[in-house]
Recover the amino acids of this structure.
């Protein structure tokens, strides 16, 4: 008989790219032939991956509970990383170029991917006591130098894949560590709440990846909530692009405003929620609303965002109270419940309630 945990954990892996299709579609209409060609190529490659994930059999591994805080493991878990080189082809995973414990290579992209996998593993272990993204020591795999002029990075349900960009709009996708953390967090979501990749649940899926991706960067740099830039993908754009990042959690809608890219469409309040049939119901657009709620919670509480705010969000994702179709209001109420359960009637729950109210999401 299938246990409740196994039933909840059955899921179809989802293709989750960092660059949303609406942005690539804008680039595909560029008057610059090189930009347009690279964007069209990336869109077609992404469409193939999206279809391929739909044909993949469901993974059925249950998400194990987080290790008990009172009984830490006798031996500290260690990551199991492998980085492959696709050599600008599309066959995955490619040629193995660096395994766990292996020395740095002459290829900076390989070394950044390896370090980013380790940084994400380190955040989940040190902050939350979680052994890899599945809680059971899942090996972390990454492929670099994927395809030619491929302007994206993605989690395909099993591993990370990084393009080198087109050197017109996008640079190497291993440059921002939060991109690596973002994509691996899709795996964390896959093994926990399993949020459907459509509409509000899909926007929450994207937001959770932005939240923990940003926490990976802040943890790596030792930043407080006040010191962090709260940008997702800073350093990914070519210097000629008028933009700082793909998204801003601090000020949704301000990450870029460029003649070729257009203007960042993310809202930061439910009054501006975007209803669209594109991008799986606007998952990369409306994620700005829960993103901003986390930013407001973290900056209200101060200190390190991976501590109290990150712990609340982690508790929600691993607590078993979410359904795959969870909407913003349900998620907001879950964060309030988690804050009260862990911290009582203190500043934590007040910060959570204040943040969701500020973005127009009811918690009652």
């Amino acid at each position: 008989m299938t246990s409740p945990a196994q039933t909840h954990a059955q899921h179809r892996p989802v293709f989750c790219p960092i660059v949303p299709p609406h942005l690539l579609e804008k680039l595909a209409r560029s008057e610059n032939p090189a930009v347009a060609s690279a964007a069209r190529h990336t869109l077609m490659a992404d469409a193939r991956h999206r279809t391929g994930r739909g044909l993949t059999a469901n993974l059925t591994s249950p998400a194990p509970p987080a290790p008990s805080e009172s009984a830490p493991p006798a031996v500290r878990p260690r990551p199991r990383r492998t980085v492959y080189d696709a050599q600008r082809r599309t066959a995955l995973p490619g040629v193995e170029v660096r395994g766990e414990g292996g020395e740095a290579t002459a290829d900076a992209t390989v070394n950044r991917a390896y370090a980013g996998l380790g940084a994400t593993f380190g955040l989940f272990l040190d902050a939350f006591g979680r052994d890899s993204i599945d809680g059971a020591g899942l090996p972390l795999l990454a492929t670099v130098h994927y395809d030619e002029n491929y302007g994206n990075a993605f989690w395909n349900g099993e591993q990370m894949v990084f393009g080198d960009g087109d050197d017109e709009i996008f640079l190497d996708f291993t440059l921002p560590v939060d991109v690596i953390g973002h994509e691996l967090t899709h795996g964390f979501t896959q093994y926990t709440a399993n949020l459907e990749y459509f509409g509000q649940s899909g926007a929450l899926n994207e937001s959770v990846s932005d939240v923990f991706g940003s926490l990976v960067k802040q943890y790596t740099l030792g930043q407080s909530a006040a010191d962090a830039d709260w940008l997702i993908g800073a350093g990914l754009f070519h210097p000629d692009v008028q933009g700082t990042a793909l998204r801003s959690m601090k000020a949704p809608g301000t990450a870029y405003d460029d003649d070729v890219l257009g203007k960042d469409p993310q809202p930061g309040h439910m009054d501006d929620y975007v209803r669209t049939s594109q991008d799986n119901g606007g998952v990369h657009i409306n994620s700005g609303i829960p993103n901003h709620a986390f930013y407001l919670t973290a900056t209200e509480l101060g200190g390190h965002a991976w501590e109290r705010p990150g712990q609340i969000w982690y508790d929600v994702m691993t607590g078993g109270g979410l359904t795959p179709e969870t909407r913003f209001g349900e998620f907001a109420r879950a964060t309030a419940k988690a804050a009260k359960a862990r911290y009582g009637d203190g500043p934590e729950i007040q910060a959570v309630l204040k943040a969701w109210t500020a973005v127009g999401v009811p918690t009652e």
